[in-house]
Design a protein that fits this description.
6-stranded parallel sheet, about 270 residues, alpha/beta, binds farnesyl diphosphate, Undecaprenyl pyrophosphate synthetase
Length: about 270
Amino acid sequence: MTQLPHPPATIAVPPVSDVPRHVAIIMDGNGRWAKRRLLPRFAGHKRGVDAVRTTVRACVRRGIPFLTLFAFSSENWRRPAEEVSLLMKLFRTVLERDVDSLHTEGVCLKVVGDLSAFDDHLRLLIERSMEKTAGNTRLTLTIAANYGGRWDILQAVSAAFLANPELRDDPSRLTEVQLAQHLSMAYAPEPDLFIRTGGEQRISNFLLWQLAYTELYFVDTFWPDFSPQVLDRAIESYCNRERRFGRTSEQVEQGQVIPDYLSGAKTEC
Ligand code: FPP
């Protein structure tokens, strides 16, 4: 069996530490933040970029190695054309202005999602930004853009079948590991902590496969007001959770790991 650097949580119990290895955030509430101030929605997105900058720095300082931000979902195309166009422009501006400082901070930038929908200029900027920062190891910042969890699982299934032609005779032999290595974030461990700002309590087609055993944290704060203090409260809540990964509390206390013969077996909640 091919070994992933970070096998899925249903196969191996990942190390649990006080600092989450991977924080994934749905940055919600930009529009409402702006509306409360009688500003156009776009003003909220612009302030949202400031919150992105602050959060990236905060994660670097806290030694969090992976941060993933949901910037634009595959469903966000349904927004008014003007807002979509302004969001694309903002994305371009961020790439043009921020990549040098991200590089200096040791941040490796990745963009995941169906990038074929973006124009050539934006795709080129994404490619160049990723190339420039590829060697950095302090923090891997992933921007999910035109991303959907269902899209990701579907494309991974197709890719897994293409890569393993023998599966065509018996598709039921496809394993979690084979599939997971074709997910667009196969380079990262599954998120330890998921945060959604803005008061809604939904996953909204974010990392559907990878969130199976993630600790969820919902907060009313609108994204432009997100701060290192709110991040710390989320991390504190995360630290107080018991992560059982299907085991009993007693087994967790004894530090019991799932034996090999159960690898890939269904686990309980
Ligand atoms: C959700 O708030 C936010 C978005 C769909 C866009 C998020 C984009 C940014 C924070 C700026 C760009 C970021 C990068 C990394 C380039 P909403 O508009 O749905 O808010 P609402 O629920 O209050 O209407």
